[in-house]
Amino acid sequence: MSDKLTRKFLKQLDRKVWLKKVGIIGVGEYLPEKILTNAQLEKMVDTSDEWITTRTGIKERHLAAEGQAASDLAIKAAQQALANAKFKAEDIELIVVATITGDMSFPSTAAIVQNKLGAKKAVCFDISAACAGFIYGISVAQQFIACSTYKNALVIGVEVLSSITDWQDRNTCVLFGDGAGAAVLAEVAKGGIISTYLGCDGSKVDILNLPAGGSRHPATYATVENRQHFLKMQGNELFKIAVNTMTKAAEVVLKQAGLTFADIDLIIPHQANARIIMAVAKKLGIPEERVYLNIERCGNMSSASTVTALCEAVGEGKVKRGDIILLDAFGAGLVWGACIIEW
Ligand code: COA
User: Active site includes 147?
Assistant: First the structure.
């Protein structure tokens, strides 16, 4: 072996030896008090409880109160996660907020959260990966901790989707909700994140986006009049792609981990549509009882969905120490992410 190759090999060996195991050591969630039921939606648009329930699995969703922004929800979830992890805010070294509905275009919602939490020494930034945001977030945080750049991280998935929902569009307004979930990540002696897999297909930006308000179409009277500040989605087209992509992501991340579906105790998928989730489970051969759902009560909360579902599954005792869980998500970008964790 040449000197150059020997050095490269030793460097790789060194990395493997010194990379730390990273796990989630605490979780928290916050769902706003206000609830919007399907029956209430029947009075707002031409829809029915029967249509929404059978097509999506959603019965109700939580909505932020007027004046309640993403950071307000994020703080409550973060405080619960910190208490759950027995961690002080001032000890947090990194805050990553996954969101597409942050308080403002800039600065980052993570910076606002840092100040409100009193997490003075934390480095902060946001991630825009829509429904896969939380999995992108923990994957990024994992790298920083594994390489010893930071000792710990607070990863938050939060959305106030009601602020970009067109309440006159029955195709979309029945689907979304608001909420926040948070996780504290740190080095663990055993288990932790076993494998992550992220992906993106930027050729399909047009099928799910928020057209105006960015540098492409800054806010004008016309963009407001044309309702361009509300989320647009070609749901039908997304449905098939979501099923195939989430199935593939689960297969890839399992293969990377050297595991099979029989090893998975619980799948915690992104909650876009109960029919999408059950189609993925069926393709993977995973029985319904090993799939966690909170969509009936929460709707689709984008970045907040996977992490709140994880938090609830832990709270209900459905995830126990030593269990192997699979997180699997897909969303606007198009982006996707899957992650296997030994709890
Ligand atoms: N109430 C009643 N009827 C509705 C409705 C509502 N809220 N929304 C749509 N419809 C109608 C449509 O207008 C259409 O009527 P038409 O046949 O007369 O044109 C009919 O229902 C069927 O619409 P379609 O879009 O084919 O329904 P669907 O079974 O595909 O369900 C979604 C629609 C949005 C629930 C589904 O496509 C979906 O969940 N897509 C993926 C969402 C997703 O993954 N998002 C991104 C990732 S987060």
Answer: no
User: Which residue out of 47, 48, 236, 240 has the highest number of ligand 1 atoms within 8 Å of its CB and is therefore the one to mutate?
Assistant: 236
Phi/psi for 177 (5° steps) reads -145, 175
Angle between helix 235-257 and helix 274-284 axes, rounded to 10 deg: 40
Alpha carbons 228 and 248: distance in angstroms, whole number? 33
Q: How far is the CA of 171 from the centre of ligand 1 (A)?
A: 6
| Torsion angles phi and psi, residue 97, rounded to 5 | -110, 120
Q: What is the pLDDT of residues 41-83, one digit of tens each?
A: 999 999 999 999 999 999 999 999 999 999 999 999 999 999 9
Which of 12-21, 250-259, 324-333 has the least mean pLDDT?
A: 12-21
Q: Which two tokens stand for residue 153?
A: 């991280």
3-state secondary structure at position 329: strand
Domains of the chain with CATH codes = 12-190 (3.40.47.10), 194-342 (3.40.47.10)
Phi and psi, residue 242, nearest 5°: -60, -45
Q: Are 89 and 118 a contacting pair, CB within 8 Å?
A: yes
Give, using CA atoms, the residue closest to atom 15 of ligand 1.
171
Q: Which atom of ligand 1 is nearest to the CA of 130?
A: 48
Q: Is the peptide bond before 107 cis (omega within 30 degrees of 0)?
A: yes
